[in-house]
Amino acid sequence: MNTLLVSGDKDTGVTVVTLNRPERLNAVDLAMAAELAEVWRELRFDADTRAVVLTGAGERAFCTGLDRDSVVPQPGSPYMIDDPLLRIGPKSNDLWKPVIAAVRGMACGGAFYLLGECDFLIAGPTATFFDPHTTYGMVSAYESVLMGQRMPHGEVARTMLMGTAERLGARRAYEIGLVSELTEPGAELAAATACASVIADYPPEGVQGTVRALWSAREAALAAGYAQAPHLISLGNLPDERQAELFAERNRTYRTR
């Protein structure tokens, strides 16, 4: 793995997967997208792994979505879209072992493809959540569908529509239930690993069946939302060059709520 760190502990049954591009704020390039899909599918066959923790390297970000330097050719049809992030999550790769996210720093945009497929989130006080799509003339489709399953409607609508002008702070994320535990500074990975160790000590059949049952309750809504996403993106996204102009002109000021 060139973009991920994968560390398994046979004694506890916990594997930690770390997004390892801190110099790019752990943005997902095409290599990382492929490696994430690969590691999730490999963990399906690893009997020593009974629970997983997902985190990001460095202090500044958990993940900032798709790397803007990634070139992704599109079919040119309003009914089809090639989105490399659609297969970066554990559930999309048929992994039904529990995955806990440990979030430090920014989690934005395409990071929600990962967070939306984790079973629960633990965050430190520096964690912030936001979606820049609308600021840059883009439709937040898949991200909104995934977060719509994890946050109250008004909260997810505000987060997605406010773009880069506002960030959801760790405390508010905890209050609305997006984050299940808010830790002391730097303690989010240890807290997530402790939870994973407890779960990994239980009989895996019952744990994995519970994960699958929980996800099945969400699948119908996700399928309906995903079916609408390609043409909404095709209709609503500005041309690439105009998006780049807006990105270059972006206002870096924001408030955290």
UniProtKB/TrEMBL annotation:
InterPro entries: ClpP/crotonase-like_dom_sf, Enoyl-CoA_hydra/iso. It holds the Pfam family ECH_1. Belongs to the enoyl-CoA hydratase/isomerase family. This is Enoyl-CoA hydratase/isomerase family protein. It comes from Streptomyces cylindrosporus.
